[in-house]
Amino acid sequence: MEQNKRHILLVFGDTFAAVLAILTAIIIQYRKMPTLDDVVNVGAARILAFMVIVVFLSFLTEIYKNHHELVIRDIIVKIGASLGLSCFVFSFLSYSSHLGEHGSRILVTAIILFGLFQFLCHSTYRLYVKSQGFARRVIILGVGTSAGNMGALIPESDENYLLSGYIRCSDEYAVVPPASILENTGGIYETVMREKADKIVVSLSERRGVFPLSDVMACKLDGIEVMDAPSFYEHVTGKLFLEGINPSWIIFSEGFKVSRVRKIIKRGMDVLCATFGIILTIPFLPFIVLAIKLDSPGPVFYRQERVGEKESNFFLYKFRTMRADAESGTGAVWAQKNDSRVTRLGAFFRKSRIDELPQFFNILCGEMSMVGPRPERPEFVDKLKEIIPYYSERHFVKPGVTGWAQVRYPYGASVEDAKEKLRFDLYYIKNLSLTFDIMIILETIQVVLFRRGAR
After folding, report:
1. For the segment 378-394, what is each residue's pLDDT rounded down to a tens digit?
2. How far is CA 59 from CA 11, 74, 77, 269, in A?
3. Does position 323 have pLDDT exceeding 80, yes or no?
4. Which residue ranges make up each domain of the chain?
5. Domain covering 133-237 in this structure, CATH number
6. Residue pair 331/400 in contact by the 8 Å Cβ criterion
């Protein structure tokens, strides 16, 4: 959940920037420190709406994603885009709510100030992420393939990490650059102290008989953070390292806990979201039905058997997006890019996710959740369980209309895609929480608006 915590930190920073912007705008307007009456004149609901709208629009412009890759120009462009959207939204709201001259001036000033404060907030965070002076130095125990994979993650991490090097602990074949292997003549503890490392990642191909227990314990007791390779991989990527985990890691790791209270809260949110979704869908239903009928012959709805919670099968419902005879000659196959079976209207429905709307009824029936691993077809599940370890574990929670894999990985159409998506699904199951669900729903809105990932 470290990536999520960083995003939440930036959101809180922007929320504070929004509050500071509107208070400063009130000071500029009245030329004095605002009194309670001044704040009341602006309106608590308007202040709250300003905070929510500017932060949400910043989220839509993806300013919180891949922060380690952003340069100052990218930050300025994204902030400019969010401010442009804010001006458009607030212009409409001002016209409909009659803010008046003073209210309009405060609003315009607040938007400009928010852009400045947001730039300062994100630029400061970027300096922290990029600055080697604030970097946490990492030493990796091991020189094999696993160690090399862990080292390759560090430059791509949103964390401010700096790789000090690798320590050879056995005669395993070295695949890391020879120049990055640290001299270890005085012992591991002395090497770690000399390099002033903050974190040790244990990534040995084989631990039995070669794990330097006393040295690593000495480092741990001296305040150095020690992580195994799977935990480090999860920490920096937001997915699980399937090749490095075993059943005992799952059993003894934190997470993979779904309490009764959490299930009740999640079910309540599912029912609320599904009911709201159905209410919003009903007015458009006649137009959707008519469009499907005019576009191609066949039924409006399409049902397909999927594997749900505890590997019990259910029928998932969609608006039909393929020809009625799409699988008559092929049987069950994954959808491909530019799939010829997809109708012209179906391509639009898939990109905009309109075809998924009937699944709100699956949610109300208790077969699906709003957020969870996407349910797969039984024909594919049987095959994938034989090839991919821990594939069955994704069925310990209800499948979802959207999920962590859906917002982090494009549409899957192969065994390798299924394996990569499983890494995200298991990460979700391990870190399941209401906050995580809300974040995924918000990111799904981004995916739908920018029409990413569907086929």
Report:
1. 999 999 999 999 999 99
2. 8, 14, 14, 22
3. yes
4. 2-130, 133-237, 260-449
5. 3.40.50.720
6. no
